[in-house]
Amino acid sequence: MWIRTLTLTLTIAAGVVAGPALAGLRAPEEAIETSTAAVILPRSVGGTLLTKPCSTCQSLTVRLESDTLLFIGKQQVTLLEFNKFLQSGGPYGLTIFYDKQSFAMNRIKVSAKLGRK
After folding, report:
1. Region 62-86: what's the mean pLDDT?
2. Which residues pair with residue 51 across a beta bridge?
3. What is the SS3 string spanning 19-76?
4. What per-residue confidence (pLDDT) applies to 12?
5. What dotted CATH number matches 28-111?
6. Dihedral pair phi/psi, residue 69, rounded to 5°
7. R_g over Cα of the chain
8. In principle, which of 44, 57, 91, 99 could form an S-S bond with 37, CB 3.0–4.6 Å?
């Protein structure tokens, strides 16, 4: 019993000590949840996407970079594979993660399985 009490006490103490330090942290990226039917994704590096993160938000432009990671489900793919998959059907759910300062796309994830047609 005393081990549970000690563990709980240490956990609470760690939260109290770390709380102010963590309060100043900000996420380096934002995410936009949308659909492949609602946007036209860039087909090449350097291409841009104009979108609105929410219905009351201002439009913003995000850019596809050479180091942008592309996923179909959990499978990382090349830009060629990504574009070929999107042309084969849809619409699919889409999440675009981008850097809040540079507006470069960090990752794009399509909610589908690679084998699905």
Report:
1. 94
2. 60
3. HHHHHCCCCCEEEEEEECCCCCCCCCCCCEEEECCCCCCCCEEEECCCCCEEEECCEE
4. 64
5. 2.40.50
6. -90, 135
7. 20
8. 91
